[in-house]
Amino acid sequence: MRGKFISFEGIDGAGKSTHIRYVADYLQQRLKAQKHQVICSREPGGTPLGEQLREVLLKQSMHLETEALLMFAVRREHIAQVIQPALERGDWMISDRFTDASFAYQGGGRHLSLEKLNQLEQWVHPDLQPDITFLFDVPLEVARARLDATRELDKFEQEKAQFFADTRNEYLRRAAQFPQRFRIIDSTRSIPEIQQELAAIVDQLLQQAE
Ligand SMILES: Nc1ncnc2c1ncn2[C@@H]1O[C@H](COP(=O)(O)OP(=O)(O)OP(=O)(O)O)[C@@H](O)[C@H]1O
Ligand SMILES: Cc1cn([C@H]2C[C@H](O)[C@@H](COP(=O)(O)O)O2)c(=O)[nH]c1=O
């Protein structure tokens, strides 16, 4: 049976990376009996070529359309080398960001037309969507404070507040457009509270897969 595909999304600093390891470990425990693996990966990145392009994408400024095309080029490689083979083996795939990030950042944040993004999506993965997308949602100020407290900021993280307001709005618009796939996680809560909700959603997904 085909494995399940879970994506994690949210503006920078919303807290998604913090919870990926928790969900992966939780799932792996429950899949042990079935001998299936949980594969964790990320975008941009996920393959040797994708990781090289990530360095460029996160550091270098470029034309908006170049940025969008490179994000989808990384994705094409990621699907071919990692996501599709994992799902065909019956493994579960967790990706730290997928195409919703292109709609949110290049579409919402940078105002690339959604029509162009739809065309790229149709070209690169006409028949593939995550089974569940966790959208970690927080007000901008909370995300910003979390980032400032932790690390040196990359190209995207240095964008202005309006960029993140537009990015967050596009994420929320997509969540409303695809309510069956999205689960909005209120990421202002404590980490244990969030983990409890994630575990309950993962349990439902496991039941559906049985
Ligand atoms: N619910 C939470 N409460 C308090 N702090 C949190 C919470 N979730 C995450 N953090 C902290 O916020 C910081 C940013 O979290 P994290 O790296 O998971 O964000 P992210 O959404 O993955 O960001 P990015 O997309 O930029 O990688 C980390 O220091 C993390 O410990
Ligand atoms: C997939 C994808 C990502 N981005 C941006 C979003 C983030 O700012 C970075 C990735 O950093 P993270 O700490 O690993 O989340 O890339 C984007 O603009 N468009 C995309 O399609």
Automatic annotation (TrEMBL):
InterPro entries: P-loop_NTPase, Thymidylate_kin-like_dom, Thymidylate_kinase. Residues 8-197 form the Thymidylate kinase-like domain. Keywords: ATP-binding, Kinase, Nucleotide biosynthesis, Nucleotide-binding, Transferase. It is an enzyme of class 2 (transferase). ATP binds at residues 10-17. It comes from the Bacteria. One of its GO terms (biological process) is dTTP biosynthetic process. Belongs to the thymidylate kinase family. PANTHER family: THYMIDYLATE KINASE, UMP-CMP KINASE 2, MITOCHONDRIAL. This is Thymidylate kinase. It comes from Undibacterium rugosum.
